[in-house]
Amino acid sequence: MKIRLLVSAAAATALVAAAVASPAQASQKAIAAPAVPTFVDGLAQAVFSTNPADWYSGEVWVQAPFDSDHDGAPDRIHADFTAPSEVLTQGLKVPVIFEDSPYYAGTADEYSNWGVDHELGSPPATRPRAPFWAAFDTSPVISTVYESTWVPRGFAVVHAESPGTGHSDGCPTSGGTNETLAAKAVIDWLNGRARAYTTKDGSTRAVAGWTTGNVGMIGTSYNGTLPEAVATTGVAGLKAIVPISAISDWYDYYRANGMVRAPHSSSNPSGNNNAFQGEDLDVLADVVYSRLDETGARTICQPVIDDIERNIDRATGNRNKFWQERDYMKDVRNVRAATLLAHGNNDFNVMTKNAAQFYAALKKQHVPHMFYFHQGGHGGAPPDVLVNYWFTRYLYGVQNGVERLPRSWVVREAASCPPRQTTVAGEQSNTATLAVADTTPFRIGFSLTVPQTNADGTVTNTNRLITKIADSTHLVLAAPVATAAGQKVADGATVSLQCSNANPTPYAEWPDPAAGQAGLHLTPGAPARGGLTFAPTKSGTETLTDDSSIAAITSANAPSSGVRLVYQTPPLTKPVRISGTPSASLQLAFSASKANVTAALVSYPPTGNGTILTRGWMDPANRVSDWFDAPVKPGKMYRMDVDLQPKDTVVPAGNRLALMIVSSDRDFTIRPAPGTQLTLDLSHSSIDIPVVGGRKALADALK
Fold first, then answer.
1. 114 in a structural domain
2. Most CB within 10 Å of its CB: which of 76, 168, 611, 651?
3. Contact between 394 and 240 (Cβ < 8 Å)
4. 222-231 and 177-190 are packed helices; what angle lies between their axes, rounded to 10 degrees?
5. CA 318 to chain centre
């Protein structure tokens, strides 16, 4: 394959020469020299047509190696593709950006989650099925979400509809094996190992002769989960994945340590704002079931959805073989695809445990890996420059050095943003090349904040993408700055990278290698707030009474309450960075044989309400294992270790860190009638917080 690498001074000179050539010469060269994949500074460039009318597009039905709708024939999976026209006119072969999804044809407008206001172990017998709804027609075009970015850069884009959705055969299974194998079959087709057809029922074969067979999968949420699932098959040709807010174990999506625990639709749980409370595997399958060949009531896959309902076990919440099928971690040893992972610190939909455990496995296996961890909720792709580096390196094989970049990119809070700045060298106007004192703090593809002094003396900040670092004192920007009449960038003005999703902060690895667990012990204070101390205590017991009608955040901010127990540090004298997975070791007794346990890490500012940083949940009957119940005898003390969701955050000076214990968590758990009492043995309970700098750093911040 011909590719063009433009990184040298000679290449730059050639570009200048081309720019000053006569129009006739330029026209002849444009005709004589068709576009080829081109890379500048290790990044794929948009040198192919941006006009969709110029692209080569089509649709196929890939034959899958299963019959999940049980009609006696292998399922066929609907896929579309788009590539630069040069794959036809020049015989060019290109790698593929591939997104697989159950969502393209839409989701049910009306559906029913499971009821959650009932006693533990006694869920409703059933729930209503979603009524028929009209799905979007996804033929011949399934989606156009990635084409405008990647086709001009010399990649093909493929979309495929998961089984039982749109124009695909089969049935949705919410993470079942058939969904993994369906996407794998598309990659096999792209590599000549599987058959595809030009129509759903026809026999005319379709061959993907326009691709190199190198595939990178990308997507968010369910669409990000499927890349991880397919990667665990070890399929040849899948070179890279970019999973965003992805599930690595469906049990950890709908359960937590034996507890039936819902995902949350908001990054700011308030007690009454969770549209996903009561959702489960069967609900999701019901919602995405959109087969377009069923024009009346959809019945083909109802037996499959009924089977999901029978196996999810909302009574005990235990892990079983059904859930294990949907645990990709059991097969993570097969992953070979270079993985650029993205997740939000405050994603209470797909919890951060899903990202952390998958990433930890990749590190252990020495699979190329990188982690983009922002401060938002669900979704949020890495900056385009990182994705471009990733796909350029692993799909085109360009040695751009991405593997030598920092492994971890965390979006820092504005108050904790490290300075990345320099000063402008000389007054400048209407320029896209900015002279500065030092370009060292900056990176290509990041967003530079530039203060522009207006004609009336006021200053207006503007942001420009850095497209090139020309040398040690010049930054090339995507567009000129200070273009208005009388506008300038003043000599000595400070230009900077402000912390945002576009400008994450680099770290060597995640969790931060300097992080260490800082253990804190509990001192009494109920019904107000007790304390946290480094020294072990002999503090007796304190008791709370479950009341699921009260939101956890309400309990956290109540100065006194019998519904929760809170233990807090003194105010921090300096900022503390948490990086990793906090955990609480609790010694608890219960007044009933069934109960919920919720632990939360809270940050209290000097004034105003606190924020729940992260939470963890456990069914006391699963204190030994997710797989089975160990009976709970009322009044007897039991130890349970509750993992909270992984976190990377900087707690400001002046704030207090606190451990809160409640029973039912209104936002997430089953909500039984109030009254169950939990008694905590303070002297045998503690919390471990992963602090950068370890115990010493936290101790110094508490002086």
1. yes
2. 168
3. yes
4. 70
5. 26
pLDDT of the residue at 2: 55
Residues recognised as catalytic: 221, 347, 378
Copy the structure tokens of residue 69: 């709708």
394 and 423 both lie in a single domain:
no
Domain count along the chain:
3
- What rounded mean pLDDT belongs to the chain? 95
Whether residue 504 is contained in a domain is answered as no
pLDDT at 15: 27
Note whether residue 610 is domain-resident.
Answer: yes
Residues 465, 532 share a domain: no
Tell me 175's DSSP state. Answer: S
The upper half-sphere exposure of residue 637, i.e. CA atoms within 13 Å in the direction of its Cβ, equals 15
Please give the DSSP secondary-structure letter assigned to residue 293. Answer: T
Parallel/antiparallel/unpaired status of strands 156-161 and 76-83: antiparallel
For the residues 374-397, what does the mean pLDDT come to?
Answer: 98
Q: Phi/psi at 277 (nearest 5 deg)?
A: -60, 125
Question: Residue 603's Cα: distance from chain center in Å?
Answer: 24
Adjacent-strand bridge partners of 436: 424
Q: Confidence band (pLDDT; 50, 70, 90) for 18?
A: very low
pLDDT of residue 539: 87
Q: Report the distance separating Cα 2 and Cα 286, nearest Å.
A: 47
Ramachandran angles phi, psi of 622, nearest 5°:
-110, 25
Q: Is residue 120 part of a domain?
A: yes
Read off the pLDDT band of 34 (50, 70, 90): confident
User: Residue 485 is part of which domain span?
Assistant: 418-498
Distances (CA, A) of 120 to 134, 314, 316, 374: 37, 9, 8, 35
Asked if 365 and 220 sit in the same domain, the reply is yes
In the block, which residue shows the tokens 């076990």?
Answer: 313
Spatial strand order in the sheet of 421-423: 421-423, 494-496, 447-453, 459-471, 474-481, 431-435
Residues 519 and 482 in one domain: no
